Amino acid sequence: MAIINYFKKITDFVSEKIECSKCADSKEDRLKVFFDAAFEGIAITDGGKFIDGNDRFSEMFGYTKKELLGKSIIDLVYMDDQDLVQKRMKENYTEVYEHRCVHKNGSLRYVEVHGKTIKYNDKLVRITAIHDITNRKKDEKDRIRFDLHKGQISKMEAIGSFANGIAHDFNNALQPIIGNCDIILYEMRNSDDNCRIHKKNIKSIIRAAEVAGLLVRRIQSFARTNGEELLQPLNVSNCIKEAFEFIRSMIPTSVKMELNIERGLGIALVNDVTIKQILMNICKNSYQAMENEQGSIVIDVYNEELVEERFGIPEGKYIRIEIEDNGEGMSPEVVSRSFDPYFTTKDEGEGTGIGLSVVDRIIRNYDGFIRIYSEVNRGTKVSIYIPAYLKDNGLGTKFKIIEEVIMGDGERILLVDDEEAIIEAVTKILESLNYKVTPFISSRLALEEFKINSNKYDIILTDLTMPELTGLNLIQKIKIIRPDIKIILCSGLSSSNNRLEKHEYFKYVDVYIRKPVTRLAYSKALSKVLNGK
After folding, report:
1. Where are the alpha helices (DSSP H) in 389-507?
2. What is the pLDDT of residue 195?
3. In 3-state terms, what secondary structure has residue 205?
4. What confidence category does residue 394 fall into, taking pLDDT thresholds of 50, 70 and 90?
5. Do 252 and 191 sit in the same domain of this protein?
6. 433 and 495 assigned to the same domain
């Protein structure tokens, strides 16, 4: 190391025995020349006080040599490192080590030092060579940040790959849950009021399953920059009320919760399911910030018009959603990093740091804005601004848990899926919609059936990922036999996964629907294929 070489030369000069005054003068001259020419800072201290040094040392800390004379060297050391430096000086530590110093202007400097106690002018003094490594440290921090950023990107890609890998199986597991619940609700449609509680519980199961399916979709889109999301003009009042009811059931009753929604709320271009996830993620964070599961969460939803830009939010009409809690709160530093992917204040293994990143992405997809106000030990308020539209423009869609389904007229469907539980549930749903269904759990056998009875069917409804023949390969072979047959492709994967929409056989698909699929969604997809609406 360069600093060791400098240090060795310096100590050799200073500690060399002088036998005559002429030699001493010559040595002092050479020492002064070396001091002044050195690229490193050089300081000589007696009892911890500065008694001599070179110009580089003075420049390094912004002082003149006169200002430094008699000054305690510890005064130049950053407070948190002073104990370390004092210990090294007391021990006559002779190895190279690093610590932080403070410039005269208050800025922090990183230094590498090499010191030794020697005899100088009949005194025991400590001579120290100081190398400023502030820029090197900055470069190291930049590299670490770059590596961290690359690591975060790798994590996002890994999560995306993992989510894509499990999406099909996960949504296949949800499909029979939603399907059978839909059938039970349909069969209970004419039941008396005694079944009201059962209907409510079944609807809760459907809502929970839809949210579970959404989690995989959001993780998938989180790892993509172009994650698709269907937005529609929506009156969000009922949507938020339902979300609140679901969240209330998740959070212990020891936490007080309150929902206030202004009458005449505007219309927003949003997705009802992601609105639920916004509230769910933020309320979950609020609850986890409460000590001993005690506290309160208040959600206020109202119209707001900004007549001028505020906090970087342009003027305009907004629906403002505020979630406020009285939990532990956050420091300004934590608030500034709250939307960073994978940043979490929870203990290891307890937090992913994904929740607020997902919320931020959803809000940005709405062309909205989000701000966080927080004080330690006083709580947190999250304010969300979503662009609003006039209520009388006819764009609004009222949110309903169950809309009116579109019934079939006895059309014949060839249903193909390799999961028996799905086949059973979907068959019941399609039959309840007045369709005639022929189910197959083997795509190969389904193809053999179609070869024999190609004119028997009006629609092919097939899964995408199956053994023997994938859905797309099955569709391609079926289209060769009968080009006019209508096709509905169903899968737990998004249509943009692995560029599915660019697959050469995807062009044969009339409607693509994504699992888990409700009875209402099946009815709409079938109506679109048959009637074009």
Report:
1. 420-432, 443-452, 471-481
2. 75
3. helix
4. very low
5. no
6. yes
